[in-house]
Amino acid sequence: MTTTKNFRTLTIGLTATAVLAAGVGVANAGLPETGTAAAAAQQSGWDGVTREQVRIDFGKGWVTDAELTYPTGSNGRLPLVVFLHGSGHNDMNQTLPEGKGSTFVPLAQAASRENFATLRFNKRGVTGIGPVETTDPAQLNPKNPYRQIQLDAASVVRFAAKSPKVDPSKIFLLGHSEGTNVAANLAAQPAKFGIPKPAGVVEMGVVGLPIEQLLTLQIFGRLLLQMHDEFDVNADGRLTAAEASDGLVGQPKEVADQYRSILLDGRKVLRSTDKNRDGQIAIDAEAGPALRKITHIDDYPNLPDLDQPTIDYVNDIARYPTVSQALPKFGGPTLMLNGENDLQTPARAALVADAAVAAAGNKDHKIVIYPGMAHTMNITPKFTPEFGEPDKQVITEIQGWLKARR
Fold it and tell me: Mean of the pLDDT values across residues 87-97?
């Protein structure tokens, strides 16, 4: 599902554009990998691991490519990790934009080193690494898109449970962004989806709050936060012309232009925003309404930067429980990881979800909030994040957690 370039860049992870990115996964975010260097990158790190190419029938005319991995020479049935993507048309690696690597490959390799099997799959509508997409609109934008994502994920788990390499009582779900919601929904009602109860759930970039709140943060709220954090040095809640001008220094041009349009008229504050004519702009009371107008956030979900398939997705996922509502019904081991700098699925959402799991009586739950990390679990600036593979400390945390529950 595609939106404008600016919105995709802003939100890799949850919505069908990418948040629930890579909060918007990663939608049409990269180009297919080609050439010797890319091929070598795909092969590195897999020493001692058998990579079996498999195909999984999702129904409704779509059979997806997937990769089942397991330690070479392993005997008997192994515990398995199923990887569940962020929103958008992600390939099995969750390939990141701008040649920044992938989310799932280093995690699958780490799990392999602990004698786990892993299963990664292309989402419906994706035909290859890149991601490469089909031209069939019915597969790219199915009716009830989030519901279909749930059903496809359940098909993957059922496929895994039937593999002679897999212990069906030891299937772990690892979700990123949108995938955290999918994992929680499946784990809360495994019988409903025809899957065995998961052995554990790992959540990265946790969808612990309703989609409307998360998208409001991504599109509107983050702008106010940035003015408070980076423009308002004396923290009085108001911006002089000098503070506004200083705040534009070092900003990407399109960001600077957006702020300038509501804050400045040459060397003075913009009169149309400075409603009380005191020569300063109150961030919340005066800049806030101006930003609400230019972002059209009050028209949610019918926003100009969201195409119809994305609006359909937003409406559909809103019908289902969030992680905070679903995962407490699971009762099994849970690990939640979130970046402190995440503006797609903020750390507060993960804290809310973990508290709900604890309140339900789960004794095996853990949450880690990483300073300096954003939605793709890499260390990066808060308001101008760069894509990147999960930081080593994230990989180590997941690896150790899996090892302890093998």
Answer: 97
